[in-house]
Amino acid sequence: MDLMREKTEAEKVKVIEAKDLVVSYGNRTALQGVSVSAVEGAVLGLLGPNGAGKSTFVRACLGLLCPAAGTIRVLGLDPVAHGERVRRQIGFVLEKTGLSEALDCRANLRFQGEVYRVEPGRLRARIDELLERFGLADRARDPVASLSKGLKQRLALARALLHRPKLILLDEPTSGLDPAAAREVRGLIASVVRDDATTVLLTTHNMVEAERLCDTVVILCQGRVVRQLDARELTGVAGVRVRCRPMSPARAEAIVQLTGAAELHQTEKVTEFVFDPATEPEEARRAVADGGGDVLEVVRGAGGLEEAYLSATGRSGP
Amino acid sequence: MRDVLLVCRKELAELFSSHAGRRAHLLTMAGQVGVFGALIPYFMAPSWLNETPVLSFIFLLLPLALSSSQSAMVFAGERERGTLEALLATPLSVPALFFGKGLAVLIQVYGIIVSSTALSVVVLNLWVRAHGLGGTFMYSGPALFALLGLSLALAALATSTGVIISLRASSVRTAQMTTTLLSVLCLLPLMTGWVTIRFAWNVVLPATFALFAAAVVVTGFALVRFARAASISVQR
After folding, report:
1. pLDDT for B138-184, tens place per residue?
2. Using a CB-CB distance cutoff of 8 angstroms, which residues of chain B are in contact with residue A103?
3. Mutating which of B2, B18, B80 best tests the A interface, going by the most A Cβ atoms within 10 A?
């Protein structure tokens, strides 16, 4: 059943493909030879500090900025030469959502549907479906100006999905939201990734967000790609880490066998056991200690990507 | 054309969508029609009935002042809110955005002009009857052409000028102040009597065509400026 088998990574269509991309604002070069690609159905994360070039890359994907050198192809097309065709297949949430504050939620979605030429007969049903899905059905007739920032982001997400785009660009979608609203929006993005099977480009400062949502994370710093982590590496770095005083490799291997740790990292100063993210930190600590490890600390969650980020950018935080 | 109408409809919907916004906007428009269509014609009826230069002054003031300040609000407002980039990221073209917004301004202003002209005819006929003059008042052909045709050309010219000013201004308020000042300066020759306009075909027709030609040139220039401003707004 050759036809039924899933596509391998190499066979998947590259929805975004940038090669040695250089983009400048006047004299300032914002992207310096960036090579990045995203395959269909995947979530590509761009992580980096302010001014790293994340939003510039999004604008280049939309064909709003012309490359000074290198190439970028989106959905197989040059986004500058075929701007309208490319943009018609993209949904986006930019830093400034561009929602009309005077219009209500439904009118904003209707305008979007008309811009993207969604068939009028289907538009109403699609709007109802998205308002329901994003928890905005009871606010459908309220002007956008009266919504909280979190609700506006939800509406912006709904708008991005309205015309069933092949690619969604999310430029810091949780920026400026309080933790609860950010969590809600992250949950909605996760549902989009899971249910809509759309390719997503997500830029973020937030490492937890990048770890939870992305298949691949590209770390940008000063317009350059400084590190790229694929799904396997991301899963690896997202676990519970038990750090111990140095020990012999044989003893460390024995603890791995005993505890079922997923990874082992040893340096002169520390021996680190990485457990599955679902493992309770206390349970992991006890298991390593019972195996004879002298535990220094237990770190959970984003510590791994954070370390990758810090070592790649040479900064103390994003 | 479809996209132009789509943007135009959205602009008009934004003005009339919210309850408070709709009421305030309708009241403002009704006030303008009331002043230019009823109050001024009633109290200056003899000048109106004789189609003296006062008539030309009032009906030049209307498109000039309204169009330039409205377009300043629409274009500078978009820039002030920083929402232009999101519109540019859609499949809408820059000309569609420009002409859609401009058309929305023109529809509003021309709506006020046509309503004021129609109301002035009713008010002046009431005045004629009240003063026992007999007969029915109607503007002469050249005057009516000037009121409806020349004012449309002037509104188009003022709209494009307002766009250019708004793209240079730092805020909506600055843009509106500049357009108001410019309108007053343009009307100064008429206000002081240095220039008078007679309502005759040999004056009205060339003036209208000249204004339309000027409107086309200034609109082209405004479109180029708008496209450049759009590209700069993306680069910020």
Report:
1. 988 888 888 888 889 988 988 888 888 887 777 888 888 888 888 88
2. 10, 13-14, 17
3. B18
Say if residues B9 and B35 touch (Cβ distance below 8 Å): no
Q: What is the DSSP letter of A104?
A: B
The pLDDT-based confidence of A46 (bands split at 50, 70, 90) is very high
Does the structure's ipTM exceed the value 0.85?
no
Nearest residue on chain B to A89, judged by CA atoms?
B91
Are B85 and A102 in contact (CB < 8 Å)?
no
pLDDT of amino acid A237 = 59
Element (H, E) at B28: helix B19-34
- pLDDT tens-digit profile of B10-29? 888 887 776 557 788 888 88
Q: Does position A318 have pLDDT exceeding 50, yes or no?
A: no
The answer to whether the CB of A52 falls within 8 A of the CB of A23 is no
Q: Which chain A residues touch B15 with a CB distance below 8 Å? A: 102
CB contact under 8 A, A102 and B14: yes
Q: How far apart are CA A104 and CA A195, in angstroms?
A: 26
Which of A287, A219, A164 has the alpha carbon at shortest distance from A36? A219
CA atoms of A125 and A117, how far apart (whole Å): 15
Q: What is the mean pLDDT of chain A?
A: 84
- In chain A, what residues touch B228 (CB-CB under 8 Å)? none
Listed residue (A5, A2, A60) closest to A31, CA to CA:
A60
**CA-wise closest residue to B177 among B167, B187, B169, B188:** B169
Q: Which two tokens stand for residue A230?
A: 């694929």
A5 token code pair: 């088998």
Does residue A107 sit at the B interface (CB-CB below 8 Å)? yes
Q: What's the CA gap between A47 and A204, in Å, rounded?
A: 5
Give φ, ψ of A106 to 5 degrees. -65, -40
Is residue B21 exposed (0-12), middle (13-18) or buried (19+ Cβ within 10 Å)? middle
Which residue of chain B is at minimal alpha-carbon distance from A142?
Answer: B18
